[in-house]
Amino acid sequence: MATCTGCSLLCEDIEAAVKDGAMDHAKNLCRKGHGHFQAVLSERTEPMIEGKKAGIDQAIAAAADMLRDSKRPLLLGWSNCTIEAQTAGIKLAMKAGATVDDASSAGLAALMERILSGKIPSCTLDDVRNFADTTIFWGSDPSNSHPRHLSRFSYYPRGEKRQRSYEEERTCMVVDVRKSSTAHMCSNYDFRVTPGGDEQFIQAILSVLDGKIPKVGDKKKMIELASLLKKTEWGAVFPGPGMLASLGDRMDSFEGMIAKLNEITTFRAIPMVEQYNARGFYELLREKTGFVNCISFEGGSASHGPENSVAAAGASGRFDAALVIGSDPLSSLPFGTARALSRIPMIAIDPHRSLTTDASKVVIPSALSGLEAGGTAVRMDGVKVRFEPIIESKLPTDEQILTRIMEAI
Question: Does domain 46-104+276-408 have CATH number 3.40.50.740?
């Protein structure tokens, strides 16, 4: 059995066959997982220095020189790295006096902080499969982002208590700005929110739960939604990128809604993180420093603040070098931030070619986690998953590369 690191579900039931050191075929992959497994054969990076081919040893030495000469380095990314690599990265940041941040939204960090501190109650995906009769996908579209979510955990499976599944015992709701693929499947309970209007939508739900007439949205549909929530025996909310981008760090309203729902029935929240170990990075950094992101080790001690975020790369020009690993920030960050980051000398550690590797001064290829490299990751619901490599590779792992850079500076 193999583990798919194509998304944060970390499906462990993949039957993979390897022939002559290469992937021959695999079963139980979704279309996203299939693309991830196929990617082992395409668009692989080569060691580069200043746009010219080099050896891996030379590229690692050049990366160490850049970080050694930097006064304010930024170590960015981490969501597609194993826990072992993230641990090595934090040690490197401590030694180099660097800043560590991820390339996700402020909303995801704010939500994870509340979940990890216990302010917002959470659960496992197995709990959802066994007990949930109502699931809400808010600003998320699992049919495309996590294709096996509905079939393995949230809607179609027979659970310990929900034996009759979606036919009789499960209700799926979607709250989104558009009619997503998931909304087409749950068309009876598709609730539309205006772009940026998630906080108002939450306030409307709270108003109806308190017996008041909502001020925004379709009043009839809002009353229908609140009625369904009140009838729920065990519910789960899956906040996704849409809601998180809308709320940003203003997560108090969502926290208040979950608290209100738990006065009536049982409701849990699980963040719909996309990269396979994004949650692992938040948990590890919080364990080491007390915060989930934006940490500076300048001066030998850890400090937290917005000035340590990747956004500061554009706002103040704070950083003079960046090491990017387990992420493609030039594709995922807002244009202004990405453009400012691209002007900083960058080191990219990545198995695949991307906009970020193309713009980097030094490129170091690494083994692909889950296929060519083993390690540990944390599923979106906080469950730790250990996986082993299934394909032999001569490429070093992320952990090995970071360790060698640390030893060289």
Answer: yes
